[in-house]
Amino acid sequence: MGHTPESAADGIQRALELIKGRWKLLILFRLFGGNVLRFSELEHGIDGISQKMLAQQLRELERDGLVRRRAHDQVPPKVEYSLTDWGQSLCPALDALLGWIERREPVACPPSGKSREASEATIISI
Fold first, then answer.
1. pTM of this structure
2. 39 SS3 class
3. Tens of pLDDT, residues 11-50
4. Among 82, 2, 92, 93, which Cα is nearest to 34's?
5. Segments making up each domain of the chain, as ranges
């Protein structure tokens, strides 16, 4: 499908909205590779996340079609989470994005005490 700059930007923005949030990427990376994890395993595997936030993020990922929730009919309740095929297909894109940022050359910081504009003006006048 051919894209205009506007439709490409809109599509990427929609994709980023699906994974936006402090915890969603950590949840996804825990589930990549076919991992099936219980709620408690995810909670213990992600430092600093509250039960409320984990439940919210999982609901959003499930609503958006990235995560599958499977509740077993037993006592005590057993709920497992895994990625959908579509969620798993996100892995190569995130790997590519990680490789892209790792290839970034260091950005020189302007000398302390000077604004970026002042530093650029110095470079331009040289």
1. 0.79
2. helix
3. 999 999 999 999 999 999 999 999 999 999 999 999 999 9
4. 82
5. 21-104
